[in-house]
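Fig. S4 source data, part A: sequence.
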Amino acid sequence: MSLITDIQKIKNPTFVLAVIALLLLVTPGFLFVFYFNRPLFEQLEFLKLLFLSLGCMTPLVAFHFFTAPSMHEEGSNTSNENFTSLIFSILISSAAMYLSLFAAYCFGESLHYGHGLRIFIGTLVTIEVGFFWGRSL
C-alpha cells in the first residue's frame, strides 16, 4: 500500500474535516507571529513559518485532547471518539487563540507598549480556566 492509495480510501467528509482542522491549527499561529513579531513573519520561509505556527498551537491542542471527558471514560477509546475529541480540541484551542489575539489587538495598542502580549496571555488563561470550570459544572 502506498500513501496515494491510502489517501484515495479516505472518505470525502473526513478529508474535508481534516483540511479544516489543519487550517484551524495553522492560522492562529500565523496570526500570533504576525501580530507579535512582524519582521520575523516577513523574514521566514513558508515551511519554517508553518512549523512555528504548529508549534504555537500544538501544546494547547494536546492539553485539550488529553483532558477531554471522553479520554477518562472506561471503554470509550474507539478511533471515532478519539477523532471527535481531536477535532473538538482543535476547535476549542483555535477559538481560545482567536479570542486572545482579538483582545490583544483591541486593547494592546491602547495601553503602553508591550502590554499586548500580557493581555494575550491573560485572556488565554482566563478562557482556559473558564472553559474547564464551566465544563466541570
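Fig. S4 source data, part B ends here. The first helix runs from residue 3 to 9.
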